[in-house]
Amino acid sequence: MAAPAANMKINADRLWDSLMEMAKIGPGVAGGNNRQTVTDEDGEGRKLFQKWCEDAGMTMGVDTMGNMFMTRPGTDPDALPVYVGSHLDTQPTGGKYDGVLGVLGGLELVRTLNDLGVKTKHPIVVTNWTNEEGTRFAPAMLASGVFAGIHEQDWAYARTDAKGKTFGVELERIGWKGDEEVGQRKMHAFFELHIEQGPILEAEGKDIGVVTHGQGLSWTQVTITGKDAHTGSTPMPMRKNAGLGMARVLELVDEIAWSHKPDAVGAAGHIEVYPNSRNVIPGKVVFTVDFRSPNLAVIEDMEKRLKEGAKKICDEMGLGIEFEKTGGFDPVTFDEKCVTAIRDAAERLGYSHRNIISGAGHDACWINRVAPTAMVMCPCVDGLSHNEAEEISKEWAAAGADVLMHAVVETAEIVE
């Protein structure tokens, strides 16, 4: 198949203007965004995206999970489409680029092809996956997970938020429950552009991350029980301090992750302490240990050592302990042909690049199970993401979108 010419590039100003326009919907309190899934703000962002796509000549399909599919036709009606996209929903204190760059980068590559009069054999479909973040309705990557057969749709519909509202009802309320059967679409390939959400590319001065693998993830909820008691009048030898037990287990978590350096990581981000009073020794703590690695055997080793080591710590302290696996997925190896298309595109365009492993979960991790898939990443300032201060440059955005376009167009096959 013919590769696009090296001078074929997206309109950087138009892409940036679109990012800034979308960021006006669901503004955060500190310069970022709060456009959580299936909220009114999410619905408004979807309508703007729909308008832009239809203005670019695309037609819309929406499935029963609310996934949006905007299609630019190809010249061969029998050719499977090349899909491209990410997500428009954000964290409660999210940035303007996480997910959004991948969706609007897909829109921009279609606009550029229209400007240049370029036709492709395969249709190109720009996708907005519903509820990638998983903050309001856990787990993350919910709708792409249903699409890929990981989750049952009824189970997904029944997910509840902090106020007891269900995903299915809220999706219908905002008017984005489509009628297309979820998962019925067949893909020639899928590409996702995303900010790195880590510091490596910026620190090494690289324009592009060629994502070869996605880290596997293991979430284990740990509950440690001791005995509530007065902090001032309970002698040290008579205490059953669940908080102290947690502190020692968290030291163990750090030690386990370090033992599998450099690619493994581990920490606890979710922590609850009961009764959480200044003058009461904690009688119970609940926290979730997040282990990640691109190697499944490493994840399994970390889980095993956590359970054995934490139980030993708590037994010696006279504390009770329980474990519950609350989430996870196996490591991902992206499609070699699609990864090569991204690497070749970066070379052709003269962008510096390096192979990289995604430390975060993405819709591409699930779609990789049903179609050839790969990801391209651009740097973000200080590696900061899931924060309103998340920032990228117009040049980084343009470089990522250029590489995305070249990989997509080469895969979709230019019609001369």
Describe the fold and architecture.
- This protein has 416 residues and is α+β, with helices and mostly antiparallel strands.
- Helix content is 35%, strand content 23%.
- The protein contains 12 helices and 17 strands.
- The chain has helices at 12-22, 40-55, 100-116, 142-147, 153-157, 167-173, 200-204, 242-258, 296-317, 336-349, 363-367, 394-412, and strands spanning 59-62, 68-72, 82-86, 119-120, 124-128, 189-195, 208-214, 216-225, 229-230, 265-274, 280-281, 284-293, 320-329, 332-333, 353-358, 373-378, 414-415.
- A hairpin with a 5-residue loop joins strand 1 and strand 2 (68-72).
Average pLDDT across residues?
Answer: 97
The total beta strand count reads: 17
- Find the structural class using helix and strand composition: alpha+beta
Task: Name the beta content range.
Answer: 15-25%
What is the CA–CA distance across the termini? 11 Å
Tell me the helix content: 25-40%
Number of helices: 12
Order of helices and strands: HHEEEHEEHHHEHEEEHEEEHEEHEHEHE
Overall radius of gyration? 23 Å
**Quick one: overall form?**
elongated
Q: Unreliable runs, pLDDT <50, ≥5 residues?
A: none
Largest sheet: 9 strands, mixed
Q: How does the SSE layout of this entry go?
A:
Blueprint: H1 12-22, H2 40-55, E1 59-62, E2 68-72, E3 82-86, H3 100-116, E4 119-120, E5 124-128, H4 142-147, H5 153-157, H6 167-173, E6 189-195, H7 200-204, E7 208-214, E8 216-225, E9 229-230, H8 242-258, E10 265-274, E11 280-281, E12 284-293, H9 296-317, E13 320-329, E14 332-333, H10 336-349, E15 353-358, H11 363-367, E16 373-378, H12 394-412, E17 414-415
Parallel strand pairs: 3-5, 3-6, 6-16, 7-15
Antiparallel strand pairs: 1-2, 2-5, 4-17, 7-14, 7-16, 8-12, 8-13, 9-11, 10-12
Helix pairs in contact: 1-3, 1-12, 3-12, 8-9, 10-12
